[in-house]
Amino acid sequence: MKKIVLLGYMGCGKSTIAQNLSKITNIPFLDLDKCIEERANLSINEIFEKHGEVYFRKLEHEMFVELLQSSENNIIGLGGGTPCYANNHELLKGDDVVSIYLKASIDTLYNRLVHNKSKRPLIANMNEEEMKEFIAKHLFDRSYYYNQAKHKVSVDDKSVEETVQDILEILA
Ligand SMILES: Nc1ncnc2c1ncn2[C@@H]1O[C@H](COP(=O)(O)OP(=O)(O)OP(=O)(O)O)[C@@H](O)[C@H]1O
Ligand SMILES: O=C(O)C1=C[C@@H](O)[C@@H](O)[C@H](O)C1
Ligand SMILES: [Mg+2]
């Protein structure tokens, strides 16, 4: 079964773009973060607080494998860190997987995340200056994994509709 997997840094728009793509294509959308929250019956913040990040990464890997194994066609929106742990980047290369990196610049990410960080435990307690530096370094560290995707779409200065259109061209 075909799996369209959207990946990229926090705030690049995986969830937003996947929802819109799902409406147009009628392919059901699964958000990995949401699936984890439902399975654990805890928010992502609560999982990090109560059990720590290592436990979260284990749940994240198990849930990603489970979603890829299901027999339906799906759009799967990954968490920002998913490709960077537990060899999950290898799963982006599977035969039935169309993996797409939504590539955003540091400025785009910062502008989207600065007013929207409370539900993202890795940045929730940072001030604005710390956040910019963190995003720059973290994005650099993670880029190797994001670039394992089969396709790349730049999202800077594009509307949701324009990014969705770029993805439809990849899928055509
Ligand atoms: N052109 C755009 N494309 C996508 N998102 C946009 C755009 N312009 C503004 N946004 C906003 O940027 C934010 C993107 O957040 P979203 O939750 O979709 O990202 P994400 O990649 O799923 O993040 P996370 O990894 O934390 O789950 C949303 O608040 C969305 O409304
Ligand atoms: O970038 C990350 O490591 C994360 C991104 C979010 O989607 C969540 O999966 C969680 O907050 C961790
Ligand atoms: Mg998301």
UniProtKB/TrEMBL annotation:
GO BP annotation list: amino acid biosynthetic process; aromatic amino acid family biosynthetic process; chorismate biosynthetic process
UniProt pathway annotation: Metabolic intermediate biosynthesis; chorismate biosynthesis; chorismate from D-erythrose 4-phosphate and phosphoenolpyruvate: step 5/7
Known catalytic reactions: shikimate + ATP = 3-phosphoshikimate + ADP + H(+)
Main location as per UniProt: cytoplasm
Annotated positions binding substrate: 33, 57, 80, 142
Keywords: Amino-acid biosynthesis, Aromatic amino acid biosynthesis, ATP-binding, Cytoplasm, Kinase, Magnesium, Metal-binding, Nucleotide-binding, Transferase
Sites where the protein binds Mg(2+): 15
Binding site for ATP: 11-16, 120
Tagged with keyword Iron: no
Localization, UniProt: Cytoplasm
GO cellular component terms attached to this protein's record: cytosol
Molecular-function GO terms, alphabetical: ATP binding; magnesium ion binding; shikimate kinase activity
E.C. number(s) listed in UniProt: 2.7.1.71
Keyword Thylakoid: no
Quaternary data: Monomer.
Name of protein: Shikimate kinase
Source organism of this protein record: Flavobacterium nitrogenifigens
